Amino acid sequence: MSSTAPAVVARDVTKLYRRTARGFQMRTLKSALLGRRGAAALADEPTIAALDRVSFEVARGEAFGIVGGNGSGKSTLLKLIAGILKPTSGMLATSGRVAALIELGAGFHPEISGRENIFINGAVLGLERKEIAARYERIVEFSGLGDFLEEPVKNYSSGMYVRLGFAVAIHTDPEILLVDEVLAVGDEAFAHRCLRRIEELLAAGRTVIFVSHALGLVEDLCDRVLWLEDGRVRESGAPRRVVDAYRLDVAREESREHREEKEAREREEGDSPAAPESDGAPGGETLRWGSGDAEIEGVRLLDAAGGERYHFVSGESVAFEIRCRAKQPLSDFVFGVGLFTPRGIEVFGTNTDLDGHAGERLEGEAVARLVCPSLRLAPGEYLVDVAVHARDGAPYDYRRKLLAFSVTSPGGGAGVYFPEHRWSFAGGAGFRDGVARGEKE
Questions:
Q1: Which CATH number fits the domain that encloses residue 370?
Q2: Of 252, 248, 276, 253, which Cα lies nearest the Cα of 395?
Q3: What is the rounded distance in angstroms from the CA atom of residue 223 to the CA atom of residue 218?
Q4: Is residue 335 included in any domain, yes or no?
Q5: Cα angle 174, 177, 178; round to 5
Q6: Average pLDDT of the segment spanning 229-238
Q7: Which of 119, 357, 440, 441 gives 20 to 30 Å between its CA and that of 297?
């Protein structure tokens, strides 16, 4: 396949599992062969659809997240991509070496040592013995299990299993790395090491497909997110939008369950989410979503004197003023602001909860201001996202690219952050502009 071809392509992928008929729960191969039920009868047994006509593509070098509740089909999908399972129907193709860290201890023989399992697991992942031997020391160093590699892995803790499995997987030079929730088993220091390694793989143009219930991590790490529900694609797209929609759905489901407990089987629907807006964005990009319990009515940028402006010199004071209206009194609410470049690079973001302001009451009209006494951004154009949401992240109103502003500076620089700075010179370094822009020691 060409270098521009997607790393993973799925077209109408369906995976069915046959239900076990009553009285056949303990059926063996022998009983199946000798029993009275033939193949035709078995074909008529009811099935469970773990995945139902799932379609998506993952580009090379992309971090692709998969979220959803337990039983939604996430792990089944990873196993199909890894080649552990085959789809019942549809097409699923991968391009490049695939390394998978899907199930705790998968691929390890419990009775042999960690060292022997490294060689066996590496061979399963497509490496020759000499290649594994050349990488052995790096695998051991990354895993941090040097003192335990001669022990049979049946004596390992769950965290040690993860350490060994991840160390082997990432040292096979995978072009596609599949990571399931097993990373949550490891300790925090090792998890940080794994995430740094994942970032390095992405920087090198490798593809990572990541499944996790840690929604904040998915939002930070991934370029796109797929939300599965009951084996079907519920939504896919930008991480923040998909994760917020998933959080909102979970919150609404919890609310529904509480109502059902109080009202028995009577089902009462809550408020409908605010209608998504595209505002003429390219490709019909969704720019607004949320439950609508509170609505953002407008945002202004103010200078130090309180005047409304949308052009600043780097280092000036800027206030982001959010005007909001709550449909009904709320005690669980957070205001947030995010700054982005036109290419979608996150420059800065914070919210009232992160900054230690615990909301007590939001009722009727309200105004919140985030003041940056010295907004030191590099020259360029910037876009502003604003949101009001619950503490768990469920959005009441999330508005993307609500306004834009520009920044200029007398000097130049690279990047997006423009800190206050100066140069000093000593020894044989001399500059004609040293007095103006530098300081002579």
A1: 2.70.50.60
A2: 248
A3: 9
A4: yes
A5: 150
A6: 91
A7: 357
